[in-house]
Write a structure and sequence with these properties.
CATH topology of the largest domain: Beta-lactamase
Number of domains: 2
CATH superfamily of the largest domain: DD-peptidase/beta-lactamase superfamily
Strand order of the largest sheet: 5-4-19-18-15
Radius of gyration: 25 Å
CATH architecture of the largest domain: 3-Layer(aba) Sandwich
Largest sheet: 5 strands, antiparallel
Distance between the termini: 37 Å
Shape: elongated
Structural class: alpha+beta
CATH class of the largest domain: Alpha Beta
């Protein structure tokens, strides 16, 4: 079932007063949640007088849908992410693909839609330039250097695990000299192994490594990892992303020809590459667990009111990198070790994520964008922990920040630290209602939660500059239209009973200020978005330049 297509009105089988799920889980699980209405058949005589009841059917309550979400981990992620104005966080269990938390900022209170939302409130949400109706966890953006992880797997498949490449500051492809970020600092990385190239995120290494692997291997591994396609989770607005290659290019531009320069761009997560935080969490989970690619799972089970199991879908495997890709455990360990070095060795780009209580491995990414002439980097950190026996994958994506290592990594570390304290019993997480998270276009230089971590080498903290065309992100709103009630006048009168006209959401632009406070909502309320708006794509101004981290 395509959750992003509006239903045929002829298929409606509910009564007008019913609360009906129009988007997200309430739409996909509506048949289970709504139950069956009761009915009475009455006897009426020839004079129209009701004499009694002929039969009665009692109403049946709907089933209970249990999610894979851990409410306390969701609360931890929601709180940590609120230090920024736009972003997303995903927490995944790499052992089965279960989604433990999924947060998006800014957010809104879904309770205001039940049973209907006022025209004033609906217009207010639609006018918010930071687009709170967009779930950034399932929207697709340029992944930057986090994409070097699937590229590393493609190289493993091509037998490049022991291959070294030099960094002289850049590589020439055709008439374009493609720089490494360290060239801006008047330095080079020299000759590197794969593990060290991952640690310092050397663009020049991956330009060469990606071309040595070949675009065919990159596309093949990407397909096995679920890139460029929807994951199939039962919520609205998921973007498939883009897995570029010769076949893809031929479809969008038959006259264009794939080149080594395009492969080099793809190898550092630039050009036309797009991926969502959820997709990158699936990629990271496959590294964490040693090669099994799970479909992400959000529905755990469906149970009737008397406690009987109605449906329970087990974890599903998309592919296995050992059997389907022909990789070895040693090859996967090469990539895992590189991610360990990123966080735990000197010169790595994510030293601020180091945590002795929960040993972490990860990869930073920074894709540099300009929004209407204003710098608006998209920064990433993908991670898993504990390193030896991973239980958690944490992916953090932030819009409007300086670097993945300085902003996204500390947020991910805060989430992992909170999970570790919660699971070990060191901290009792109290669930409480939260105000909807406000959005803004402020630029975040760095994030510091006061954690005691070793100082990082500034040379490796904010680098990775590269020039290339930028892909436009995929931000979708749910397709459903909510039930909007007309506002009353000063005398309390409603002028008409028809659905009032509301203003459509506008694409985000520079200079928006944080919205006003919204009614409180539960930390996991954003997964129960009963009602959406018309599907819109964010039409941010085409970036002039993109840098990668």
């Amino acid at each position: 079932r395509d959750l992003d297509k509006l239903p045929d009105l002829r298929s409606f089988n509910f009564y007008e007063p019913d609360v009906e799920g129009k988007a997200q889980i309430e739409l996909s699980m509506n048949e289970h949640l709504k139950g069956k209405p009761g009915a009475r058949i009455l006897r009426r005589n020839a004079k129209g007088v009701i004499e009694g009841e002929s039969s009665r059917r009692e109403p049946v309550q709907g089933n209970n849908v249990h999610l894979t979400l851990d409410a306390k981990i969701q609360a931890i992620a929601e709180q940590a992410l609120r230090v920024v104005g736009r972003g997303a966080a995903v927490v995944l269990d790499p052992r089965n693909g279960d989604i433990l938390a999924m947060a998006s900022v800014p957010s809104y209170d879904p309770n205001v839609f039940i049973p209907s939302i006022s025209a004033t409130d609906w217009n207010k949400i639609n006018k918010e330039e930071t687009n709170p109706m967009v779930n950034r966890a399932i929207s697709a953006y340029a992944p930057g250097s986090t994409y070097k992880i699937p590229i590393a797997l493609a190289g493993m498949r091509a037998g490049l695990e022991d291959k070294s490449f030099p960094c002289y500051g850049g590589v020439q492809y055709g008439d374009k000299y493609m720089r490494c970020w360290i060239a801006e600092k008047k330095r080079t990385h020299g000759k590197l192994s794969l593990e060290d190239a991952i640690k310092v995120s050397c663009n020049a290494y991956f330009y060469q490594f990606g071309n040595a692997a070949g675009i065919e291997q990159i596309v093949a591994i990407g397909n096995m990892l679920g890139l460029g396609q929807k994951s199939g989770i039962p919520i609205s607005g998921e973007s498939p992303g883009v897995l570029p290659g010769p076949e893809w290019l031929n479809k969008i531009n038959p006259r264009a020809r794939w080149s080594n320069g395009l492969t080099a761009n793809t190898a550092i997560g630039q050009g036309d590459v797009l991926a969502s935080p959820l997709q990158m969490a699936v990629v990271t989970a496959a590294l964490a667990n040693g090669g099994t690619v799970y479909y992400p799972r959000l529905i755990d089970r469906i149970v009737s009111q008397d406690g009987q199991a109605v449906q329970q879908d087990p974890p599903r495997v998309r592919s296995n990198l050992l059997t389907d890709a022909g990789l070895t455990a040693e090859q996967i360990e090469h990539v895992r070790r590189g991610m360990w070095n990123v966080v735990n060795e000197g010169g790595g780009t994510a030293g601020r994520a180091k945590n002795s209580d929960i040993p972490t491995a990860g990869k930073t990414g920074t894709a540099q964008f300009w929004r209407s002439g204003v710098k608006d980097n998209h920064t990433w950190f993908i991670s898993f922990a504990p390193f030896e026996n991973p239980e958690y994958v944490v992916v953090v994506f932030v819009q409007g920040a300086k670097s993945g290592g300085g902003v996204s990594a500390p947020i991910a570390a805060k989430i992992l630290d909170g999970i570790q304290k919660y699971k070990s019993g060191k901290e009792d997480i109290q669930l409480a209602a939260l105000e909807p998270a406000k959005g803004n276009f402020l630029f975040t230089e760095s994030v510091d939660f006061g954690r005691d971590v070793a100082a990082t080498n500034k040379l490796f903290d904010d680098g990775e500059t590269a020039e290339s065309p930028s892909a436009t992100g995929q931000e979708n709103r749910p397709a459903a239209e909510p039930t909007v009630r007309a506002d009353a006048d000063e005398a309390g009168r409603v002028q008409n009973k028809t659905q009032p006209r509301v203003e459509k959401a506008q694409p985000a632009t520079a200079g928006a200020q944080p919205g006003s406070a919204k009614p409180k909502s539960n930390p996991i309320g954003n997964f129960f978005n009963f009602l959406g708006g018309k599907k819109e794509k964010s039409k941010e101004t085409k970036p002039e330049k993109k840098e990668n981290r």
